[in-house]
Amino acid sequence: MTGERLERYTAARIANQVKALGRKITAACQGRRLDVVVMMDRGFVFAADLIRTIDTPVAIHFVRENVRDVEQGGRARREVFFDSREAMAGETGQSKFKGRDILLVDVVLDSGVTQDFVLRRLGEGKPRSLRLAVLLDKISQRRMDLEPDYFGFRTASNVMWTGYGLAASNSLGGNGQDLTAATKGKSKAKRARAKRKK
Fold first, then answer.
1. In which order are the strands placed within the sheet that holds 129-138?
2. List of residues 6+ apart from 69 with CB closer than 8 A
3. Would residue 107 count as lying in a domain?
4. Confidence class of residue 3 from pLDDT cuts 50, 70 and 90?
5. Is 109 among the domain residues?
6. What are the tens digits of pLDDT across the range 67-115?
7. CA separation for the pair 103, 77 (Å, rounded)
8. 54: domain range?
9. For the domain that residue 150 is a member of, what is the CATH number?
10. What CA–CA distance (Å, rounded) separates 56 from 28?
11. Which one is predicted more confidently, 16 or 2?
């Protein structure tokens, strides 16, 4: 790909990082039940691998982001809702997470807006502990005062990752076992031409 520099995390390297995260989470739980809340749709591959490395009783819940374009006062705007009835409350409408250990799992932490919102909602249920685990931590464009408790890799924000549950802009590539990132930049030929012009 001209003008792009490819980076890759192999399936073996990802697996080693996921196992390391699982050991840390297991140690923190000390044998207690852990309620894992998975951000769908992109977090499911990472979450599936991660929970199988955690050696403590685990209950799994899902939160799905739902983007809607709405019109208000003659102006169109985009709102983000979360379909999270099961994760946020029980049949009585009361939180079922009171006094429990909760781990929110997503594959990428970038601006932090989405994860911060969900963590705040989960925190309203007064859990015993509330932590965040991500595979990719993109720190340069963080808009919220939020850091993951567990992360696999720190990476720049100007990359588009595909594979391991993350799809490209055409919705393809999410089934790749490796993670591949295309970093936009000048090709060697373009850099050489620019240097000659100076």
1. 75-83, 58-72, 34-40, 101-109, 129-138, 150-155
2. 76, 77, 78, 79
3. yes
4. very low
5. yes
6. 666 677 777 665 556 665 555 554 445 678 999 999 999 999 998 888 9
7. 31
8. 12-155
9. 3.40.50.2020
10. 10
11. 16
Token pair belonging to 71: 């019109």
- 98 found inside a domain: yes
Q: Which residues contact 173 (CB under 8 A, 6 or more apart)?
A: 162, 163, 166, 167
The number of domains in the chain is 1
198 contacts: CB under 8 Å, gap ≥ 6: none
Residue 61, in any domain of the structure = yes
